[in-house]
Amino acid sequence: MWNKTSTCCNWSGVTCDNEGHVISLDLSGEHILGGFNNSSSLFSLAYLQKLNLDDNYFNSSIPSGFSKLEKLTYLNLSKAGFVGQIPTEISQLTRLVTLDLSFISYSTKPQIPNLQKLVQNLTKIRKLYLDEISITSHGHQWSNALLPLRDLQELSMYNCDLSGPLDSSLAKLENLSVIILDGNNFSSTVPKTFANFKNLTTLSLSDCGLNGTFPQKIFQIETLTILDISFNLYLHGSFPEFPLSESIHTLSISFTSFSGEIPHTFGPFPMPISQLHSLAIIDLSFNKFNDSLQVDSIFELRNLSALDLSHNNISINVNVDMFPTSCALSTLNFHGNLLHGPIPQSLSHCSSLEDSVTVSTKGQQVNLVKILTIFTAIDFSSNYFEGPIPEVLMDFKAIHVLNFSNNALSGEIPSTIGKLKQLESLDLSNNSLSVS
């Protein structure tokens, strides 16, 4: 609550200059209800440079009065609950460096009838976020509208009803470091010129109707940390033989038509994957990889938290020491591949594993639910695991369900199985196990 008995410069969210002029106002997350119009006293703050109205419930159109705040360099109306069209008067805020209109409405999509008119004077802008706003422009139209923004560094236009093609002219904005265009309908190829971005850290083109062949050189952009081209079913491609960028943190190409071999960049030569120190998430699921893959080096990644190789046809030789003591995985999915070998005791090293872990052998699903002391169920049924039941599994004291049926397990059933006091269902049928 603002205390009217004290100067406004001492109020929470208010910043003043040395002369007492309000230069910054942060009302984000205040859950303010109801709208305001052009007569609002807000528009009398002639010295205001930064305005943040994020996360409120104004439920009104955006007043054209924002154009009066001529000194604004930062304007954030994200998730503020505004409706209707975005007023072109915002184009008069020529000092803007950051404009965030993303997810502005809680009901219907606001509209930008003419993107060129909105941004034509915003030549100083560096960060532009327009997620979930209907723009309905073709590729060359919205790309050309952005070309005057030579200082633009971050562009996010998620689910903006944009249509194709994905125009190569966008590469002229050479300072771009973040490009997020998910959820549009480009129905086009990815321009080869995108590999020319020298500062690109994030390229997210998920669910965009992309097709053709993905340019391999994009994998080599030295600054790239996040690459997401998932859910483009007709996008073809393969990994290059040259090394991936060492800075890559997240790589997602699930639900595409990538095929071919897993390259040496994911193996011992020329660059061990263990040297990609920043890599934390690998998602190669639902593709057409069929190469034999030794995953040992992948698990050496000390920051790797999620690995999804599901629904491919990759042959993986499981060994006892498959998981290192430094294993930090929280998600592991091998469903729909070809696993061979024993159940690795070293799985217990992955103390961060939780929720559901899915693997399979020859298409037969294996579910591990709740690893370690919070294990409640293990289902290894109908696979081709061989060898003895690892004693380490007897340490999962909270387990309720244990199913190893229809495998090739052998040896004696551990007598320590009696320690599992919470066990309600046990199925070891159709194996070659014996009881002492």
Automatic annotation (TrEMBL):
Q: Which Pfam families match?
A: LRR_1, LRR_14
What keywords sit in the KW lines?
A: Glycoprotein, Membrane, Receptor, Repeat, Signal, Transmembrane, Transmembrane helix
Query: Its membrane topology, per UniProt?
Result: Single-pass type I membrane protein
Q: Does the keyword Glycoprotein apply?
A: yes
Question: Listed GO cellular component terms?
Answer: membrane
Protein known as = Disease resistance R13L4/SHOC-2-like LRR domain-containing protein
Localization, per the record, is: Membrane
Give start and end of each Disease resistance R13L4/SHOC-2-like LRR domain: 44-204
Organism (species): Trifolium subterraneum
